[in-house]
Specification:
mainly alpha; Hypothetical protein af1432; 11 helices; 0% strand; binds fe (ii) ion
Length: 195
């Protein structure tokens, strides 16, 4: 695996300045929240650092590059280029940055769609991506407040925002996002019933 410094250097040379700043914001939030949710700081840092490592590729070449990296894209990713950078990102993190930790690779892979039964590391990267200081929409503010209270409630809200955004744009909703939301809502309701 590359050292942290090498990763920074590689990212800085391949990402546009704006994206690099976004990445640094996600790292900051992920590292800050990691101890609160029992996540290893080192894992949170690397997953956040590399979550958008494939976003700098030109979208027109996404499919070609995915094939080069041996990434199989499902029918949704084939129609929605916005999803590809996450799936491809895990492969790039593995091959170009030398990351072999499955938990970190999964956190990168699922940072856009989410999925049912996520690890806390996956949840953390998903949310940090939406609350980093560069995110100025009102939903980000609400999410910052919510994450201090309850990770899963915050995640439901984050996934709702993301699904609404996809609907507004008239795009396809990846089934993993629906599964993620249903899983969390069911669990939340079960916990309430137990009280
Ligand atoms: Fe992303
Ligand atoms: Fe991001």
């Amino acid at each position: 695996m590359l050292t942290e410094e090498e990763m920074h250097r590689k990212l800085r040379s391949s990402q546009k300045e704006r994206r690099y700043f976004h990445t640094m914001g996600v790292v900051k939030e992920a590292v800050r929240l990691a101890p609160k949710f029992g996540v290893e700081i080192e894992k949170a840092k690397i997953a956040a650092l590399l979550h958008d490592c494939a976003k700098n590729f030109e979208q027109e070449r996404f499919f070609e590059i995915a094939a080069e990296y041996g990434v199989t894209l499902d029918e949704y990713a084939q129609r929605e280029p916005a999803l590809v950078h996450a799936f491809l990102g895990a492969a790039v993190a593995y091959r170009d940055y030398g990351v072999t930790d499955k938990e970190i690779l999964d956190a990168i892979y699922y940072h856009t769609t989410a999925r049912a039964n996520m690890t806390n590391l996956e949840k953390l990267v998903y949310i940090a991506d939406m609350i980093e200081p560069g995110r100025t929409m009102p939903q980000a503010e609400e999410l910052r407040r919510m994450v201090e209270e309850n990770l899963d409630d915050a995640l439901i809200y984050a996934i709702d925002c993301s699904i609404k955004h996809v609907i507004k744009k008239g795009r396809l909703i990846h089934p993993d996002s629906i599964h993620a939301r249903n899983y969390l809502v069911e669990r939340r309701d079960e916990l309430r019933d137990d009280k």
